[in-house]
Amino acid sequence: MAAGALRVPIEEVRWFYRDEDLSIDPNGMATIRQRKDALYVLDSGEFETMRFMACMGAMHWDQIDFLPVVELFKSLLPGTGSAVFELIRGLYDDQNKGGVVPKTLRYRGIPTYPSEAAFRLFGAFFAPQPLDGEDPLTAFINPSKSHLVGWLPARYPPVRYFDESQGLCLTMKNGVAQKATLVDDPAGLSYVSSIGRHVLPLDRSLRVEGNRLTLRDRETELTLPLNPDLQVRSSLPEVCPVSPVDWRTVFAQGIPGISPAEAFEAVPLFPEDDREISELAAQSFVADYLDDLGEQDREVGRLRSRAEHVLIANGDAIISTCILFDRPRDYTVNVRDFAYAQRQAQQLWIQCAEVQRWDWLQRIRMVADTYEDSPDNCGPYDLIYQWLPYDTFDSSATMRTIVTRLSQMLRQGGNAFVIGPVQLGELLTQQSRLLVHWDQSVASLPTFLMHKTILPKARVKPSLTLFRVGRL
C-alpha cells in the first residue's frame, strides 16, 4: 500500500522500512516507524547542549550502499552538506578497498527530493554515469528516474584542511584551491576560485601564488601564508569582473555589527519534538504558502504582480521569498534581526546576478524597524507583508497601534498579508478602512502540514493566523 501511494517500487520501501518497523495493536491500529539519521548543532562542541538541525533517511553506515538527500536542507549550517558527503565518501573508500570493480551507488529517498543542488553535491564526490544516452542531470531531476542514475567514485574528491592559528578552512581538489572560509568573517560567506566561472558569487574570490593565499572581496584583499606541506598549486584568476552593485548596498543605514557566529548561524532551525517553532523559523510556512498561492490563485497572483511599492515588515527570514523577480519594484524592508536580513540580502544579490538585473537590487531598501517613522518610510504601499512580533501578542494596545499604522500606510485599494494571533482579526475589522477578505490558521497551511510529514510532532504558536486584508 505504501509503495502504491508513493508511486515507487516496493524495493524502495523495503530499503527504508524493515518488518520490525511495523506494529499492529489488538484494535488494528498500525504504527509505522521511519528510521532517520539526524544532524545536530553542538553549541559548546559537546553533546550536552545540542539543537536539531536536519535529517535524512537512515544510512547503512557499515556498508555504504546509497546516496541520501538531506531533508530540511535550508536549515543546514554552511558546509554541513559537504561534511556529510566527506564522511560518506571516506567510509565508501574504506569499505571498498581492494575491490576490482567499485560499487555503483544510487540516490534513494522516500519521498524523493532530486534537485540540481543535490546533483552538484553528489557530483563533487561521485561521478554520474550515462543513462541510455540521456543526460544524467536531466534524468536525475526527474523524480521517476532519479534513482536510476548510477554514481561511481570521482577520481579527485574535495578535501578540507583546517588552519586553527589563522581561523582558515581551505577546500582543495586535486591540489587546486576551491574554497576558503574564515571563522571570524562577519559576512558568513566563503571565497571561491574564479576558474570556470562567469560570475563570482557575491564578488568573493581567491587565488594562490606560491605559498600565499589571497582572498578578495570586491576591492578589498587579504593575503595569508599557506603551510608548504599542503602542496597547493598556484592558480591565476580568470578575468571575472566585479558586479556593478555590492550586496551590502541594500542596507540603507549600513550593516550594524554582526558577530561571525550570528552570521554563520542565520538559518531557521526546527525542533524535532513538540516544542513551539520559533518566530523566525515559522515565517517560512507563510511565505512559501503565499508564493504557491500566487501561482494558483489568479487574484492573489495579480495583486502581487501589480504592486509597485511593497513593504515587508518583520519578515527577516523570508525577505527574498516575498520579492518577485519578474520586473523592477520598490521594496522597503523593516528589519529586526540583521543577521537573517544579511543572509537574505546575499540571496537577493544571487537572484539578481542570475538575471543580470542590478537595477532591481538598487530598488530594495532594508532599514532598522526603529527607523519606520521616518517620512520616507510611511508609504503609501500597494502591498504589505506584516508579521506581528510574538512579543506583541499579549498587548492589545501594541497590536492596535500596528493595525492603525498599517491602515495609514496602505493605499486605497491596496492589500496586505498580516500574520498574528487569531484575536487580531477583531482589531482589523474595527478599522473602518480595512476589510478582512479571509483568514487561515498557520497550523492548517499545506506548507506546515508538509513539514509535519518530516517532523510529526511539529507545533507552531497556538492561534497563529494569516489574514488577507484590503484597504477600502
What separation lies between the terminal Cα atoms?
52 Å
Strand content: 25-35%
What would the average pLDDT be, to the nearest integer?
Answer: 92
What is the number of helices? 14
Shape: globular
Main pleated sheet: 7 strands, mixed
Protein structure class = alpha+beta
| Strand tally | 21
Low-confidence stretches: none
* Multimeric state: single chain
Spatial order of strands in the largest sheet: 8-9-10-11-12-13-14
Q: Helix share of residues?
A: 25-40%
Sequence-ordered SSE layout with sheet pairings:
Elements: H1 2-6, H2 10-16, E1 22-24, E2 30-32, E3 36-42, E4 50-57, H3 80-95, E5 105-106, H4 116-125, E6 126-128, H5 136-140, E7 150-153, E8 159-163, E9 168-173, E10 176-182, E11 190-193, E12 204-209, E13 212-217, E14 220-225, H6 260-264, H7 279-296, H8 298-306, E15 309-313, H9 319-322, E16 330-335, H10 338-355, H11 358-361, E17 364-368, E18 381-387, H12 396-409, E19 410-421, H13 424-430, E20 434-441, H14 446-454, E21 464-471
Parallel strand pairs: 11-12, 15-16, 15-18, 16-17, 18-19
Antiparallel strand pairs: 1-2, 3-4, 5-7, 6-7, 8-9, 9-10, 10-11, 12-13, 13-14, 19-21, 20-21
